[in-house]
Amino acid sequence: MHMMVSKPEQWVKPMAVAGANQYTFHLEATENPGALIKDIRENGMKCFVTFTVTYLCLLQVGLAIKPGTSVEYLAPWANQIDMALVMTVEPGFGGQKFMEDMMPKVHWLRTQFPSLDIEVDGGVGPDTVHKCAEAGANMIVSGSAIMRSEDPRSVINLLRNVCSEAAQKRSLDR
Ligand SMILES: O=C(CO)[C@@H](O)[C@H](O)COP(=O)(O)O
């Protein structure tokens, strides 16, 4: 879940109870990222027991930064999270133009944290996914490029293939 909310702390437990297995919050939206990461982990580790089945909910932690936030502010938390999300549009709505000048953030993260999942969100489609993958992104959020396509499945396959090929190339280059 990409939580584009002003108070991410208040939604951790409701989302865990609802069955979410991933919780991404914005660095800009909290005074204490470390405490929020801990809270997400603790909520995700709870077991929810029904009459017949025990559910073990594991919550993955994502940390997002808006275009105006320097990537260095995310670094102190990078070893405590499962995924970093680099926004390539201002959070709010789909269909915005891809901000290519966010790619140095992705490259810096990939260089500093080779095994971290790095997601890009905003204006990503067939014309921009190569820049994201070459910079080091291995997770893509795409809305308009897929929904506006006459063949959504082929767009999804393209996005997936471009990222997996770039990841394979990185692993060979190491
Ligand atoms: O998250 C946001 C903006 O808040 C959007 O970027 C969507 O998640 C993706 O939409 P497209 O940019 O791919 O249309």
Key descriptive features of the protein:
174 residues, alpha/beta, TIM Barrel, two-stranded antiparallel sheet, 6 helices, 8 strands, binds 5-O-phosphono-D-xylulose, carbohydrate metabolism, manganese
Number of domains: 2
CATH architectural designation of the largest domain: Alpha-Beta Barrel
Report the β-strand fraction as a percent range.
15-25%
CATH top level class name of the largest domain? Alpha Beta
Specify Rg, calculated over alpha carbons: 17 Å
Low-confidence stretches: none
Q: How many runs of DSSP E, i.e. beta strands?
A: 8
Helix-strand category: alpha/beta
What is the average per-residue confidence, as pLDDT, rounded to a whole number?
93
What proportion of the residues is helical, as a percent range? Answer: 25-40%
Write down the overall geometry: globular
The CATH topology of the largest domain is TIM Barrel
Which ions and ligands are bound to the chains?
5-O-phosphono-D-xylulose
Keywords: Carbohydrate metabolism, Cobalt, Iron, Isomerase, Manganese, Metal-binding, Zinc
Cofactor: Fe(2+); Zn(2+); Mn(2+); Co(2+)
Protein name: ribulose-phosphate 3-epimerase
Pathway: Carbohydrate degradation
What does this structure look like?
By secondary structure, the chain is an alpha/beta fold. The chain has 2 domains: 1-64, no CATH class; 66-173, Alpha-Beta Barrel (TIM Barrel), CATH 3.20.20.70. It has helices at residues 12-18, 33-44, 103-112, 129-135, 144-147, 152-173, and strands at 2-3, 22-26, 47-49, 54-56, 60-65, 83-87, 117-121, 139-141. The protein has a 6-stranded parallel beta sheet. A two-stranded antiparallel ribbon has the order 3-4. α4 (129-135) packs parallel to α6. The relative contact order is 0.11. The mean pLDDT is 93.
